[in-house]
Amino acid sequence: MKISEIETPAVLVDLDVMERNLARVAQYARDHSLRLRPHTKTHKSPVIARRQLDLGAAGLAVAKTGEAEVMMHAAPKEILVAYPVVGHRKLERLMGLAGSTRISVALDSLAAAHQLSGAARAHRREIGVLIEVDLGLKRVGVQPDEAAAFAKAVARLPHLRYEGVATYPGHIKMMDETGLAAVKTLSNSVESLVDRLSAVGLRPEIVSGGSTPALYHSHHVAGMNEIRPGTYVFNDRNTLELGACARHECAATVLCTVVSTAQPGQVILDGGSKTFSSDRLATGADAGFGEVVEAPQAVFTKLMEEHGFLDIRRCGRTFDVGEQVHVLMNHVCVVMNLHEQVYGVRQGVVEEVWKVEARGKLQ
Amino acid sequence: MKISEIETPAVLVDLDVMERNLARVAQYARDHSLRLRPHTKTHKSPVIARRQLDLGAAGLAVAKTGEAEVMMHAAPKEILVAYPVVGHRKLERLMGLAGSTRISVALDSLAAAHQLSGAARAHRREIGVLIEVDLGLKRVGVQPDEAAAFAKAVARLPHLRYEGVATYPGHIKMMDETGLAAVKTLSNSVESLVDRLSAVGLRPEIVSGGSTPALYHSHHVAGMNEIRPGTYVFNDRNTLELGACARHECAATVLCTVVSTAQPGQVILDGGSKTFSSDRLATGADAGFGEVVEAPQAVFTKLMEEHGFLDIRRCGRTFDVGEQVHVLMNHVCVVMNLHEQVYGVRQGVVEEVWKVEARGKLQ
Question: What pTM value is reported for the model?
Answer without folding.
Answer: 0.97
